[in-house]
Amino acid sequence: MVRLSHIAKLAHVSVSTASRALAGHEYVASETRDRVRAVAAELGYEPNTLARGLRRSQTRMIGMLLPDTRGSSFSSEASQLLHKQLQDFGYGLLLCANHHDREVEKRYLQTLPGIGIDGLFHLPLAHGNAEALIEGNNPVRVIEFLRSSGSAKLDGVVHDESAGSVQVIEHFVQLGHRRLGVILGPKRLGSTGQRAAGVLRALDFAGIDRDTVPMVHAEHSTDGGGRALTELLARRPKVTAVYAAGANLALGAAIAAKNAQIRIPDQLSLVGLGNPSWGRLMDPPLTTYALPIQEIVMTAALLMMSRIEDQASAASVPVQITISGRMNIKESCAPPAG
Description:
The chain is an alpha/beta fold.
């Protein structure tokens, strides 16, 4: 059987480009589209078989299992970008939220295959994974998204949470801060442990005693971030820089600082984790460690299409692709006063 990957190889294009060319996508150059269609015709591959040939009993629907679908800048941006990217391939996106509950996640992983999804983007909780979905007679392609459960059987397009925290602490140290504080998410989340590990590694490298740096855990909400900053300052009033490892945590911390008449960055430097659209509207604008959402979405979508198109890929060696974020330096950080 002629596969889309065969056409792509002979036409010297990627599988995704071949797919869009055969579907008549407007963003494919006419020369490329004609070349792909000529190869397809020569091999006896009809463009109108694309919808039927990718998979038996195909629904052309991809699932996405996230901790939240509302109130999270990451979930909102990632799902919108992924929806648009999948539309280009002729697929729909089914969003599901586990609300940070492992039992809810488990139920979704048990029931989603029954509705006939062709693949699943899974942002796993602490120790859960979706290995059972890739087994059996009708496997579902699974790509772990943003973070990994540690499974050696699943594909992943992930971000190094630990490395992001290292960059934030290094930024504080370069500015001259030594009295630091950290606001982290709930201990039950795997991402929290990875972010904490990065903080500790950076502290050790900088020669800062771990015991002098308070680390407060809170739910990923503005209220949680506000309470965490209040607790942190009560434990160490002379802190000069705070890392809030979550967008909502950073917003809550900024509000709490304002309510306490603590000036940012004159009295307290603040860095948040994520890509919040409101960050640039703060006064002063918020320095962030920006997650590589667009790169993760594009890479994950292309990997999913490759896995779905090639039936044999279900048994292929899983790949783990790690994409780094970057510091987005704004005015919420400054050298410590005095």
